[in-house]
Amino acid sequence: MVTRRSFITKSTIGIAGISASTKMFASEMWKAEPCKPVVISTWNHGLPANEEAWKILAGNGYSLDAVEAGVRVPEADPEVITVGYGGIPDAKGKVTLDACIMNEKGDAGSVAYLQHIMHPVSVARLVMEKTPHVMLSGKGALKFALANGFEKEKLLTHDMRKRWKKWKKEKREFSPKINIENQLEENHDTISMLAVDSDGRLCGACTTSGMAFKMHGRVGDSPIIGAGLFVDGEVGGAAATGSGELVMKTLGSFLVVEFMRNGMSPAKACEEAVKRIVKKVPDYENHQIGYIALSKSGEYGAFSLQPGFDYAVKNHEFTGLKEAEAWLKKL
Ligand code: SD4
């Protein structure tokens, strides 16, 4: 993202060359400043996902196609054990997936508790485009996917089966951990992605295998429109990662977008939504929550509850990971 310093440098050069007829107010220039197209997504698995999305965005494609293509990367990657194929199973050893997608017009599609399908985000898109509904779940969602050409696949990998067996033997309890350096020990990490294309269309997607060893039948925030993801094409979009129950109780992504509607920057809006959790949820210190947000003009930001939440960014000026500021600062 362009820093204020580089903005000042650029705008000084710009002002010198502005004729009377093209004169802009500083506030208009500030608004015009963010760089489009842009894609942002949660955690470091967002890096390859952004690259895939960028292939579409860089060719002036539609951000809906970009976010779908982007999040399909970790969905298909067995090394990403918190999304799609190779995801950590629930307490019964079943991989159950949640996903949703939203376009700039406010159309939305979602699937919850979907089994055996590698790309739940694409099923969610079909729910949005082909049905009069927003959300399908469980067996109905599976039937819909199969009827639309998706194949039934085995999503539980050998490694995950081994890990689940070990958990069953040793722990048998649901214990979300905050951030884990060692990917093999990871127990949550949804991919949420937001993108604005060169025509200014803002879309988002979110997909996950949910919290590790969750109760069978549990659905998190990720497929809930307004919780795991919300997009208002006239304002901006927001998406979440972390303990879904806390996001659901505060309808986090919707809240972030409403704060942006009222004039907050994306980062400030994310911070306020984290503060709402701090205020309302007594055991918030035992959880991680990360929000990312993107304005329709391409300004982005993030904020988390605990330190250690990073998000991936790609536009014409920057490619890489950024660490979000956190409410509970590092010691
Ligand atoms: C959920 N929010 O199911 C998801 C889990 C997650 O990183 O990973 N977030 O609650």
UniProtKB/TrEMBL annotation:
Any Pfam family the entry gives: Asparaginase_2
Residues the record marks as site: Cleavage: 189-190
Signal peptide limits: none
Active-site residues, record numbering mapped to chain: 190 (nucleophile)
Alphabetical list of Gene3D superfamilies matching this protein: (Glycosyl)asparaginase
Superkingdom, natural source: Bacteria
Any one GO CC term of the record: cytoplasm
Positions that bind substrate: 218-221, 241-244
GO molecular function: hydrolase activity, acting on carbon-nitrogen (but not peptide) bonds, in linear amides
Protein name from the UniProt record: N4-(Beta-N-acetylglucosaminyl)-L-asparaginase
